[in-house]
Write a structure and sequence with these properties.
CATH class of the largest domain: Alpha Beta
CATH architecture of the largest domain: 2-Layer Sandwich
Number of helices: 11
Number of domains: 2
Radius of gyration: 25 Å
Strand order of the largest sheet: 2-3-1-4-5
Helix content: 55-70%
Shape: elongated
CATH topology of the largest domain: Alpha-Beta Plaits
Number of strands: 5
CATH superfamily of the largest domain: Reverse transcriptase/Diguanylate cyclase domain
Distance between the termini: 31 Å
Order of helices and strands: HHHHHHHEHHEEHEHE
Length: about 290
């Protein structure tokens, strides 16, 4: 049972890694792959004639476009696939028969329903992995991505860095301006960080006024420079609203894989509290290596 559980975790991790890789691919490329694969299926369907139908092979293309490109592009593909399928084996008597028209309509309904079911599932999945207030990743998503980086570091020796951040004197903002202002501050912090990191990086709100930044394949010096830059940008961002707060960071670069995500966060969190104890409004950086 233990081996089965490990195999399942490995499989889920590899699927997640593949999905992340596809998600980072250019959308025009994915759009071209989706439509070209559907065209190939149409040609094979035409060559197979009436005896064989390849309907099931349309669904991977529809899924690819719905999940990674847009619902609109997938809906267009659903319409085109239904029309082309309707025209296969062109025979005026068959084309105009009610049975053939009804079958084509049902295929169209099936394709479109599939597209919108996938969209609904993706939306619910994203909500489950997104912080409702700041719209950045939540703890669950951060854990998933961190596990991938830990495994990559363990297997290939690729370093990565994690920054843990706390808003200094956040309680005073809530007490002085109200919780609406506090929520506005959290949203502004999340947006500022997200706007100044790479697409491969991840910012997550882990609770309250604490945020974490995952920096894949990022060494010690680049991570420290980036976090110092973000700290300055955050200070500039809050000056517009006259919020009297600063930001403390703990940055850990992992040259060796930590035992777990919890241990990884614990180290960055402890370093962040050292920064607060040393006077706040600063970033402390260390390296971790076994």
């Amino acid at each position: 049972m233990k081996h089965i559980a490990q195999y399942r975790q490995t499989l889920i991790r590899e699927f997640g890694r593949a999905a992340d890789l596809i998600e980072k691919s250019p959308k025009p490329l994915l759009l071209a792959i989706g439509y070209l694969s559907a065209i190939v299926i149409e040609i094979l369907n035409f060559m197979a004639g009436h005896e064989i139908r390849l309907a099931v092979f349309y669904f991977p293309s529809l899924f690819l476009l719905t999940w990674f490109v847009s619902t609109r592009s997938a809906a267009v593909l659903a319409i085109l696939s239904s029309v082309f399928w309707f025209m296969i084996g062109f025979d005026l008597l068959e084309i105009t028969s009610m049975e053939h028209i009804w079958n084509a309509l049902m295929r169209f309904v099936l394709f479109v329903t599939f597209v919108y079911v996938v969209r609904a599932y993706k939306r619910e999945r994203n909500f489950a992995r997104q912080d409702f207030l700041t719209k950045v990743a939540n703890g669950q998503r951060f854990t998933e991505l961190s596990n991938i980086e830990i495994e990559r570091c363990r297997r290939y020796g690729r370093p990565f860095s994690v920054a843990y951040m706390d808003i200094d004197d956040f309680k005073k903002i809530n007490d002085s301006f109200g919780h609406i202002a506090g929520d506005d501050l959290l949203f502004k912090v999340a947006r500022t960080i997200r706007g100044n990191i790479r697409s491969t990086d991840t910012v997550a709100r882990l609770g309250g006024d604490e945020f974490a930044i995952l920096l894949p394949e990022t060494g010690f010096e680049p991570a420290c420079r980036l976090v110092q830059k973000i700290r300055v940008l955050l200070l500039d961002a809050v000056q517009d609203r006259f919020w009297q707060c600063t930001f403390s960071f703990g940055v850990v670069t992992f040259l060796s894989a930590p035992p777990s995500v919890d241990d990884m966060i614990r180290q960055a969190d402890a370093l962040m509290y050292k920064a607060k104890a040393a006077g706040k409004n600063q970033a402390m950086c260390i390296k971790y290596e076994i």
